Amino acid sequence: MTTTNIHLHTYFRSSCSARLRIALRLKSLPYTSIPINLLKDEQHDPKNTALNPSATVPTLILTSTNNNPATTTTTIIPQSLAALEYLEEVYPDKHPLLPPLSDPEARATVRTLANIIACDVQPVTNLRILKRVAPLGMDRAEWSRGLVEEGLQAYEEIAVKSAGAFSVGDRVTLADVCLLPAVWGAERVGVDVQGQYPTVWRVKEGLEGLEAVREAHWRNQGDTPEEFRVGF
């Protein structure tokens, strides 16, 4: 019998980390969180960069053992989309996050929406970029707000055609797993998500009603400072 232990290097406000927290909770896969404080530059610690050469979070680590310790294997995945796809391939029957293979169009829509967030929005609004634009005189919140609004507008225009209860149909998919942390970030920088993006808002409200999502919320993590837990 093979036993797999899962560890997740995470930061409470990291949207990429939240994607994996949500997916692991939805798939009912127990995991141990290892906090990496980005504001203290712990992502650059050699212990972290040995696992994640990009000096980022999250890093997903799966250690599998059976009755023979010599056959222990460790899988390290330092990119959130790759980790999400891995979990989907290894645990396809635990809350599938992609539509069935028989519906390639829906699978493409899910991946399109996920990539709008993961490729168009998150990379240009993350902490590493914000640190670079601030010395140029750019207000960090203003910078993020404009880019997030562009991305959510694109997401809205596609999702309004594909959404059921969630972004693509009536089941939570990889698109939703990527969307929700981006919406949390959008709210923090003052984007009027409810007023500008009604489909995104409706999906967000439905997702936040799920226990797995509440457990993965950035206000509800072991490394969340006490002042951010108020009212959660």
What key phrases describe this protein's structure?
Glutathione S-transferase Yfyf (Class Pi), Chain A, domain 2; Glutaredoxin; 10% strand; alpha+beta; 232 residues; four-stranded mixed sheet; 4 strands; 11 helices; 2 domains; single chain
Compile the SSE list and pairings:
Blueprint: E1 3-10, H1 15-26, E2 32-35, H2 46-49, E3 59-65, E4 73-77, H3 80-90, H4 104-121, H5 127-133, H6 140-162, H7 174-188, H8 193-196, H9 198-207, H10 211-216, H11 226-229
Parallel strand pairs: 1-2
Antiparallel strand pairs: 1-3, 3-4
Number of strands: 4
**Low-confidence regions:** none
Largest sheet data = 4 strands, mixed
Oligomer: single chain
Order of helices and strands: EHEHEEHHHHHHHHH
Helical segment tally? 11
SS class? alpha+beta
Helix content: 40-55%
CATH top level label of the largest domain: Mainly Alpha
| Number of structural units classed as domains | 2
Secondary-structure arrangement, i.e. CATH architecture of the largest domain: Up-down Bundle
Q: What value does the Rg take, in angstroms?
A: 18 Å
The overall pLDDT, averaged over residues, is 94
Overall geometric form? globular
Name the strands of the widest sheet in spatial order: 2-1-3-4
Q: Give the end-to-end Cα distance, rounded to a whole number of Å.
A: 40 Å
Strand content: 5-15%
Could you please say which CATH topology of the largest domain applies here? Glutathione S-transferase Yfyf (Class Pi), Chain A, domain 2
